[in-house]
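Reviewer 2 asked us to include a model.

Predict the structure of this chain.
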Amino acid sequence: MVKKKPDAESGERVDPRVRRTRALLRSAALELVSERDVESLTIADIAERADVNRATVYQHFKDRDTLLLNAMEEEVGRLARAAARCPLTRHGGGTPAELVELFRHVEANATLYRAMLGSTGTARFINELRGLLAHEVAVQIHAAATTGDEALTRLRAHYLAGAFIGAFTQWVSDPQRISAEQAADEVWDLMR
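Predicted model (structure tokens):
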């Protein structure tokens, strides 16, 4: 008998063969994203790299962007957790070490972020990332009690999340990229 683990999204038990196939597809998608622009990537390309047929891909993911978003989910989660550690509501002082670490995280995964945030990336990925970052910023704003107004908190959180995405996009795309430390210092200065 095949032992099943619960699926993270639905809570239902998923056959290990299904989990392996999804992992294989995610891995193939990430490899291809690091090699070429996202717009030129097709389901057929991913299927070929994963050594499965196209129908298999569609059994697991409704389209290319859903597969790419799923493949990047773990990376986006790591970025959101790194952002959560940044004391963004702190005033004054030098650049927080956590902000430098956030930029180092993006730098270590620059190829993927350049592909997914750049001009050939996907809007769904950018929107998902902005939403996760905005959530983490909103949590900090609430904890710091800088405002009790929910609408104002959401506006500030999305402003900062959008600023981070813009900064990350420019930074990883720049052929003469400055260091993670310099980028963090500059962003911290702009936030003040």
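The chain has a mean pLDDT of 86. The longest strand covers residues 5-6. We have added this to the supplementary material.
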